[in-house]
């Protein structure tokens, strides 16, 4: 497995700068999740590392080696796309075995059989091994795509929203499987998602991209608790962080223009009066949708709360985050 280093990487498409001076070290054996809104440059980052695009400027190193000019095969990376990419005329077994049959690898036949079986079992597609790829559901095809990356032993795995087409149950199972695979094999994994539960549960590090720039790189906890900007703060947390004028509650620092209050940073029962707009019972938690001086606020409360729509509840902020006029955190 290997470390990946991007050093001042720039990539434009026509006049559009997709990556703007990105430097990042993906440590050996880490699980790095890239977060960012659509168009932030996440997929471009993966494609540059894979060798499917060339950088305009800057360096990319995999395992210490400069990879400029190397083909995707020479880089020995396995990429899983959001959209499954299988050979339709081959069976599931043949699709899974395909990467191992590369003349470069010279994998013994018995090893191919055992690897294919092990991966099929893990992804729960053993019963479909003899089906043609076209005779599978979307979720099954995506599992085969993931399987094709897992049978190999690449230097790094690059995955672009690999679970987004799966149903919720399978997604949560595979989240755990992928995390286990990474933890047990010591694989280096770079993973793009819009799903913050995936980001929080799987990542050892999160990279936040915004308009082609890497604005923060740190542990999930770091990014959640100490976001560098309002933008980074909004990438994590469900319900989302409440963004309010800084002056709404007392004690804001001078430079602060807005305050960010995560749902758990609102203490109930003390402070200012707020109106309960809606009580949303989700089973394991109950969300309160409040209206405070004309501003909507979402917080979480006791699942069995007696509060109901139209009630008044007192709230006060605990450890709010403050941001300046440029959206950078100032306290
Ligand atoms: N082949 C291309 N030709 C032209 N523009 C491109 C190409 N690939 C990417 N771009 C542009 O580069 C920018 C970054 O795109 P990229 O796909 O990396 O974003 P992303 O963060 O992965 O977004 P999404 O979450 O929608 O996948 C976007 O403005 C996109 O339109």
UniProtKB/TrEMBL annotation:
It comes from the Bacteria. It is a peripheral membrane protein. Residues 4-236 form the ABC transporter domain. GO terms for molecular function: ATP binding. It is found in: Cell inner membrane. Keywords: ATP-binding, Cell inner membrane, Cell membrane, Membrane, Nucleotide-binding, Transport. Belongs to the ABC transporter superfamily. This is ABC transporter ATP-binding protein. It comes from Rhizobium rhizophilum.
